[in-house]
Design a protein that fits this description.
Elements: E1 4-8, E2 12-17, H1 28-40, E3 48-53, H2 64-70, H3 75-94, E4 98-103, E5 106-108, H4 110-117, E6 120-124, E7 128-130, H5 144-151, H6 154-163, E8 167-168, H7 169-174, E9 180-182, H8 187-200, H9 203-216, H10 221-236, H11 239-249
Parallel strand pairs: 2-3, 3-4, 4-6, 5-7, 6-9
Antiparallel strand pairs: 1-2, 7-8
Helix pairs in contact: 1-3, 9-10
């Protein structure tokens, strides 16, 4: 049995982490499935990508049995392995359509990183997010410190990383990190509901918005204003804007 698969549902792709026996730990199959989905997402018919898992837990991060074996590698070789994981985060960030994380049970280590790399995040009641690296004498990777620094207060980031204390989905929702908390067993349905909303909207404009928001964390305000100006000038002359404006004035739903 493969440990991950990609479901093609027409206007969306669903990456399913199937490594239930190890609480969704990272696997070569999951790496391959995410890469495949991100490559396929360029097709105009695709409007969203959903990351989910079987077995009641989103992703436990790195498999410690694998990490034990990596101790035999040189530091340069171990660095390359981490870069493979970081490439997944980069691919998710660069995806041309929105990526939605459906977190059942919880996420730990790099699983938290994968969830936070997504544009939208739904989680089950009682799900917990744990940066468990320090318990194994390790340090965060996969962009976790960067994501936490942008999304939560400094003291909470320190609490998560230094003490490995889990943070509930409910608290993450209060901080605006989780978009919705739903009853256990309903996260996939909630993720698909978000994908339905995205499928209704203008694909090109959504892609530009994703890019603008992503870079806003990195660039000075003056440069961001220029980027917004240029993007708006292009969008205002496009077909999506023509339809959207006409639909608004005619008091009808737009047909993007």
């Amino acid at each position: 049995m493969t440990l991950a698969r990609v479901e093609d549902l027409g206007d969306r792709l669903v990456v399913v982490n199937r490594n239930a026996a190890r609480r969704g730990a990272l696997s070569a199959d999951l790496y391959a499935a995410i890469r495949h989905a991100m490559e396929k997402a360029v097709e105009p018919r695709i409007r969203a990508v959903i990351l989910t898992a079987e077995g009641g837990f989103f992703c436990a991060g790195g498999d410690l049995n694998v990490l034990i074996e990596r101790r035999k590698l040189t530091e340069a070789e171990r660095r390359d392995k981490v870069d493979d994981l970081h490439d997944l985060v980069r691919l998710i960030r660069a995806c041309p359509v929105s990526v939605i994380a459906a977190v059942e049970g919880g996420a730990a280590g790099a699983g938290v990183s994968l969830a936070l790399a997504c544009d939208l995040l739904v989680a089950a009641e009682g799900a917990r997010f744990t940066a468990a690296y320090v318990r194994a004498g390790l340090v965060p990777d996969a962009g976790l410190t960067s994501a936490l620094a942008r999304m939560v207060p400094r003291q909470l980031a320190m609490e998560m990383c230094l003490l490995a204390r889990p943070v509930s989905a409910e608290r993450m929702a209060e901080l605006g990190v989780v978009n919705a908390v739903v009853p256990a067993g309903e996260v996939d349905a909630a993720a698909h509901a978000l994908a339905d909303e995205l499928a209704w909207g203008p694909r090109a404009a959504q892609g530009v918005i994703r890019g603008l928001v992503a870079q806003a964390y990195e660039v000075p305000e003056a440069r961001q204003l220029d980027a917004e100006r240029d993007a708006m000038a292009r969008a205002a002359g496009g077909e999506e804007a023509a339809e959207g404006i006409a639909a608004f004035l005619e008091k009808r739903p737009p047909e993007f």
